Amino acid sequence: MSKTRACTVPSVLTQPPAMHEGSITVRLPVDLREIERLNRLVRQFGDLHDVPSRTLYAINLALDEVVTNVVRHGFDDAAGQELVTEIVASRAELTTVVTDQGRAFNPLDMAPPDLNAPLADRALGGLGIHLIRSLMDGVEYRRDGQKNVLTLRKRIR
Questions:
Q1: Which three-class secondary structure state does DSSP give residue 87?
Q2: Which residues contact 78 (CB under 8 A, 6 or more apart)?
Q3: 69, 38, 71: which is closest to 139 by C-alpha?
Q4: Which of the residues 26, 61, 101, 112 has an alpha carbon 20 to 30 A from that of 32?
Q5: What 3-state class would DSSP assign to 122?
Q6: 133 three-state secondary structure
Q7: How far, in Å, CA of 10 to CA of 1, rounded?
Q8: What ranges in 85-140 are assigned the alpha helix state H?
């Protein structure tokens, strides 16, 4: 007669790590040189709130693209302009809201790039928002008065 043993895996090992709830708001001049500072602050926030490294990487890469686009395309003259980034950690999701007062632009209106077309035939632009959509679990845009508000959501897995 054979004996069967049941093995129970503790739930701690089967569920994603729980983050500590909290938030941070970062105000930066609209300047490409500020991307590294934002990246560093996001990493520090992630370490403090136990955000998994894969999630932090995705958020930082998406933020790099968003901020670069705001700096390069949002203003004729960015001198004195500000970009505000709010990051909120809940138990299961990291939400990032980027607000600027640049020209109105909904990146979600961009047609997806044709990744199968030869490079010489591809239209310029659109790869950054494609990357952001690929990295995030949710991307929303709204115009609030004179402000662009882009919300990025990344679930913890």
A1: strand
A2: 29, 30, 31, 71
A3: 69
A4: 112
A5: coil
A6: helix
A7: 29
A8: 127-135
3-state secondary structure of 128: helix
Q: Is 80 left (phi over 0), alpha (psi -120 to 50) or beta?
A: left
Residues 75, 128: contact at Cβ < 8 Å? no
Q: How is residue 119 written in tokens?
A: 């490079």
Tokens of 85: 């980034």
Q: Which among 49, 48, 25, 47 has a CA at the least distance from the CA of 38?
A: 25
> Two tokens at 114?
């044709």
Class of domain 16-155: alpha beta
Question: pTM of the entire structure?
Answer: 0.82
**Cβ atoms within 10 Å, residue 43:** 16
Q: For residue range 89-147, what is the model confidence (pLDDT) as tens digits? A: 998 999 999 999 999 999 888 766 666 666 666 566 556 788 899 999 999 999 999 99
